[in-house]
């Protein structure tokens, strides 16, 4: 039965999905124009059918990789007979064509999830949901045309080779099996708030109920993107062997930009839902966040960026994606410019209130987004317009982002203690007093561990965020007297803020990292940060599709063994490339990190080692995962509980009276 699901079936399923997506994107609007409501109702079965067709197409591509079907060009160029099964499967999305198909499949899953959401429980009408699905269908249809016309993963190779070219050895890592799908899910997840925003502009209704619909999708996309960025940073740290956590690589920045705008959207949507305010701004952020995701796709797939992550340059692909970006983002922004003036932005806020704290949060996050966007796009634009080759790296980003991050951290600690509508300064200071003293007590011992005042200040503010989040939850628990009565959204927000503080602490710790590059004989000792590093042996090993030269390094402190590290230098058979496999020993204190550079050319008995002592490094990624967990934990709180409110429209009748009627 499995033989039926071959490349041809996958190709036909992809073409069918494209047709279904285009029908999904046009029929609801055609029904609106011709007053045929029945056409709009077809959006739901079309979205589900499209998702099924694309899942079938993706399964067929995976089966082609599992079967070593080298008649498929994509498989022949990215797989080999001797490649382990995990990497055969993960390699499906480790290339341009496969990753685009994965992108489309995730988008179709988002559409199917919207189609299956119970509108009778949420107040979401069939017509408004049809508009949302139509917009998602148009986006999906455009990218499926791109896939079929310029990036077809099912293109045949004749004659079929006996073996494939193999996969880039750097990508042959378990992290590849999880990082791209999660990252893409975060990217594509912002398509749903985008579709809700455009649908609201079309219908002319943006209110607190709309904010209630948008928030869960925003939280889910943000949590997945946070997890994807965290895994990507960890992968870069332990696979590339450079000892750092963030290179300010253009493609890394391409994921950070929508994360920053998505974080702003997440907080702005809170004001829209709770106070029926910032509606125009929230709609704009929903459009901007997905537009930034599309821009990142264009920058990577067009090849205009010089990045270790970017795929090969192809002008046709770049022009096609740029056209899609212009149609999708440009069309949405044009609609926003046309319809936004007709919307009521909501009530004004008291200067001292949680609403204004969230506005302050949005200003800083969007400023950070603008800085990263400028630093990422400036070099390619300068090269395109003036032929000048420029490099914008860590010095620029450090000097421009740190002045924005520090007040953002300070505001995070205060914002959760402020009340809605109007906050009492005296009461707020009273609530923050325990957090202030806890921060002071824990920060004093840190002073002697940091090289500069900026790193120390950031560490103190990170502690401030952590302690204020914890004390805020403790005070809420004292008010409700039981864990069960505290909403999950409060726990989620607390965890997310703690995660930010933990990540910043890890980054500050890495500011004190030390490393040394040494030429070592077997049995030779080296000192680094009070630790003794001893090269005990070097031996040859054989892997499933590589040969390795492995070093054994004993690390001890004051005569007591701390860890034994086994970095290696691997030479792969297909393709014939060499990579360095890092060895890491992690603890609460930090990482001991070793890279083996092989034999010194001038002396065959001498080996090159790069040794790192990275304080607090693991906390960077632990904090990222805590952030993502906080987002996911808050999802049940944001689920629609329409039955408990009976009629949410009546609850907000005063707030939305100027917006005509909600989309019910």
Query: What is the CA-atom radius of gyration, in angstroms?
Result: 27 Å
Q: Can you count the beta strands? A: 10
List segments where confidence is low: pLDDT < 50 over at least 5 consecutive residues.
307-312, 637-664
What is the tally of helical segments? 22
Largest sheet: 6 strands, antiparallel
Q: What general outline do the C-alpha atoms trace?
A: globular
Helical/strand content category: alpha+beta
Strand content: 5-15%
Query: What fraction, in percent, of the residue positions are helical?
Result: 55-70%
Query: What's the end-to-end separation, in Å?
Result: 46 Å
Mean pLDDT comes to 89
TL;DR of this structure?
The chain is of the alpha+beta class and 664 residues long. 61% of the residues lie in helices and 12% in strands.
């Amino acid at each position: 039965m499995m033989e039926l699901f071959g490349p041809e079936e996958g190709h036909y399923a992809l073409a069918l999905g494209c047709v279904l997506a285009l029908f999904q994107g046009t029929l609801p609007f055609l029904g609106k124009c011709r007053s045929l409501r029945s056409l709009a109702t077809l959006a739901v079965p079309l979205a589900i059918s499209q998702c099924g067709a694309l899942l079938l197409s993706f399964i067929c591509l995976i089966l082609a990789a599992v079967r070593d079907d080298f008649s498929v060009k994509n498989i022949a160029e990215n797989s080999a007979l001797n490649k382990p099964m995990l990497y055969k499967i993960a390699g499906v999305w480790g290339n341009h064509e496969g990753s685009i198909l994965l992108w489309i499949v995730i988008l179709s899953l988002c559409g199917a999830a919207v189609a299956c959401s119970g509108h009778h429980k949420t107040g979401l009408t069939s017509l408004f949901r049809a508009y949302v699905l139509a917009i998602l269908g148009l986006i999906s249809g455009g990218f499926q045309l791109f896939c079929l016309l310029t990036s077809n993963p099912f293109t045949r190779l004749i004659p079929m080779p006996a073996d494939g070219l193999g996969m880039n050895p750097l990508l042959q890592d378990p992290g590849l099996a999880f990082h791209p799908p999660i990252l893409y899910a975060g990217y594509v997840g912002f398509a749903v708030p985008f579709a809700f925003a455009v649908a609201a502009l079309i219908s002319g209704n943006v209110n607190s109920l709309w904010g209630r619909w948008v928030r869960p999708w925003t939280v889910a996309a943000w949590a997945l993107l946070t997890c994807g960025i965290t895994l990507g940073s960890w992968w870069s740290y332990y696979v590339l062997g450079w000892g750092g956590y963030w290179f300010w690589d253009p493609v890394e920045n391409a994921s950070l930009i929508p994360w920053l705008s998505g974080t702003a959207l997440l907080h702005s949507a809170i004001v829209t839902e709770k106070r029926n305010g910032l509606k125009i701004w929230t709609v704009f952020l929903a459009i901007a966040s997905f537009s930034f995701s599309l821009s990142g796709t264009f920058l990577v797939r067009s090849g205009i960026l010089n990045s270790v992550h970017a795929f090969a340059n192809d002008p046709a692909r770049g022009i096609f994606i740029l056209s899609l970006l212009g149609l999708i983002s440009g069309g949405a922004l044009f609609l926003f410019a046309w319809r936004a003036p007709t919307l009521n932005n909501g009530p004004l806020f008291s200067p001292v209130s949680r609403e204004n704290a969230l506005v302050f949060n949005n200003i800083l996050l969007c400023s950070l987004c603008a800085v990263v966007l400028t630093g990422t796009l400036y070099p390619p634009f300068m090269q395109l317009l003036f032929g000048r080759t420029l490099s914008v790296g860590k010095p620029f980003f450090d000097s421009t982002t740190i002045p924005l991050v520090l007040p953002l951290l300070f505001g995070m600690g205060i914002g959760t203690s402020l009340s809605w509508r109007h906050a009492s300064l005296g009461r707020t200071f009273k609530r923050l007093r325990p957090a202030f003293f806890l921060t002071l007590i824990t920060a004093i011992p840190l002073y002697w561990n940091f090289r500069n005042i900026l790193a120390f200040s950031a560490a103190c503010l990170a502690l401030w965020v952590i302690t204020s989040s914890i004390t805020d939850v403790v005070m809420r628990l004292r008010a409700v007297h039981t864990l069960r009565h505290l909403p999950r959204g409060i726990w989620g927000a607390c965890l997310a803020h703690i995660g930010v503080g933990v990540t910043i602490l890890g980054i500050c710790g890495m500011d004190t990292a030390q490393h040394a590059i040494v030429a070592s004989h077997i049995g030779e000792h080296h000192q680094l940060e009070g630790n003794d590093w001893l090269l005990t042996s070097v031996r040859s090993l054989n892997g499933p599709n590589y040969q390795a030269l492995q070093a054994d390094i004993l690390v001890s402190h004051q005569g007591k063994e701390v860890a034994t590290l086994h970095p290696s230098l691997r030479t792969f058979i297909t393709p014939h490339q060499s990579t360095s496999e890092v060895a890491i020993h992690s603890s609460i204190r930090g990482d001991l990190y070793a890279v083996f550079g092989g034999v010194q050319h001038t002396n065959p008995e001498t080996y090159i080692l790069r040794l790192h002592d990275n304080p607090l490094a693991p906390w960077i990624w632990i904090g990222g995962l805590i952030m993502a967990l906080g987002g996911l934990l808050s999802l049940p709180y944001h689920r629609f509980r329409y039955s408990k409110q009976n009629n949410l429209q009546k609850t907000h009748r005063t707030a939305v009276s100027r917006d005509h009627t909600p989309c019910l």
